[in-house]
Amino acid sequence: MNIENTKAQMRKGVLEFCILSVLKEKDAYTSEILDTLKNAKLLVVEGTVYPLLTRLKNDGLLNYRWEESTSGPPRKYYGLTENGKIFLTELNGTWTELSDAVNIITNQKSQS
């Protein structure tokens, strides 16, 4: 079994949740989102994030606006819709439950 593949699958599973969480405080453009994820040690590439942002937008969880940039072409800023905020709140609850359950299981002492 390839451990790197398993680790990559685990990261992919939480990427949507992390992107929505990045956008809960303020709108951001793609490179800001990528920087935030990288600073948290969640290494992803643009080729993974762009399709996910498009899917989240198509699902009605994100919207975007174009904003002029002083250092290049206009930037597309993503933000949460009202549905996105509700969805993120539900994901937060699910994450807490799942995280607690995994911690209980992985930290159990073997019973003699």
Automatic annotation (TrEMBL):
GO biological process: regulation of DNA-templated transcription
Stretches assigned to the Transcription regulator PadR N-terminal domain: 19-89
CDD domains per the UniProt record, alphabetical: HTH_ARSR (cd00090)
PANTHER family: PADR-FAMILY TRANSCRIPTIONAL REGULATOR, TRANSCRIPTIONAL REGULATOR RV3488
Protein name: PadR family transcriptional regulator
Alphabetized InterPro entries for the sequence: ArsR-like_HTH, Metal_resp_DNA-bind_regulator, Tscrpt_reg_PadR_N, WH-like_DNA-bd_sf, WH_DNA-bd_sf
